[in-house]
Amino acid sequence: MRWKTAPAGVAAGHPETARAGLAILEAGGSAVDAAVGACLASCVAETVMTGYLGGGFALVCDAVRHEARVLDFFVTVPGLDARGPRGQLVELAVPFGEELVHYAIGPASCAVPGVPAGLRELVRAHGRLSWEELVAPAVALAGAGVPMPRAHAECLAMLGPVMTYTPRGEEIYAPGGALLGEGDSLSQPGLVEALQLEPRELSARLLEASDAFGGVLTAADLDAYQPVWREPAAIDYCGTQFVSRSGLAPVAPVLERLPRLAGLSPAERVVALAGALRGADRDGDTTNLVAVDRDGNACVITTSLGLGSGDFVPGLDLHLNSMLGETDLLCGPLAPGTRMQSMMAPSAALAEGRVVLAAGAAGGTRLRSALVSVVAGILDEGLDAATAVEQPRLHVAGEVAHAEPGVDEDGLLALERSGFGVRRWASRHHYFGGASVVSASGAAGDPRRSGLALPAP
After folding, report:
1. Domains of the chain, with CATH numbers?
2. pTM score of the predicted model
3. What are the distances in angstroms from CA 380 to CA 344, 349, 433?
């Protein structure tokens, strides 16, 4: 099969994030420029999901060099040159859908952030426009405020205890005593200054806040932090080379063991997906965005703040991350300076060196389920991007299959006969992740996260 090249466009987890990326493409920016500008906008519009003091990964596909590589700008463990005991974490139970999930927040949960350094490294290596041009849409959003989409308001309702843990959090997310709802304006005026600070000044303000709160960051931690370029995992899949970041929830191995779905009955499809997706479940809040430019370059960025520590840098409205409180990310010894692990998996499919699909997802291990469903739907089953993203999802957590309404009932009954527990969700839900994709079959943002895709005109 001869694959078409993915057209220029942007897909993201919030309408304003997508609009910021598209504006930068139209101003002559590269795919990386558009993705960076969109990511900066997400740090204003999507602060229920992510933030500037979080961490992430980017997959960059270079059309001239015919290469794909991953930039790791995830968080590191603090404690270099530490002179005192580690601070205390605050245990908190948060309702996630119908499940009660336990987290740890507070200033001691903040790891060394990577987003500021990571975005600047992407621009240095692959950008065309200036940093000032790329940050301008995000600064404008911070000054004006951003309407809350439905899915983000629903997420805030789940995370209210974290987001309003401190007085500043209450002022931002529950002004007047009530949590923001759909259509309400999310106002974070301090981000106007925060996003324009030079790196050293930002580090100084963050360190000052961490010290005042009783956090564990040190000057040595912030000085030592560096983004790292890495090689992606690569497999042959449906006549393409599929490339993706490997991590705690890798996508490539699932696609390798997934039988071809084209031609299967709906029930057989459910059984095949469940068999390939067996694995442990984890939770977390993340966001993802995709940009493809007219030269065929692509950039996929996934970022997260964890839940957020509940603490905000005074005057800057920057929420500290809570990665050290995400128990499912605490794999192995936490030696100061080491990278923490992650489930993020920005991905792409290439044919003859050309990008035919660029995709990523948010949502802990559910991001893997979402990506497998979307990628297989497009490349194997021949679905258009919107249909692949919107179709009902199946997620396997241990021996329990979680199913959105519309997943084939005969398939679910077959899973139950084989020993699976099946949980049938009453409605499409944030739980099942949020995918973003730009492909030869179209572009799509995930309605589960109020996402939006915008083709370049």
Report:
1. 9-444 (3.60.20.40)
2. 0.95
3. 23, 12, 21
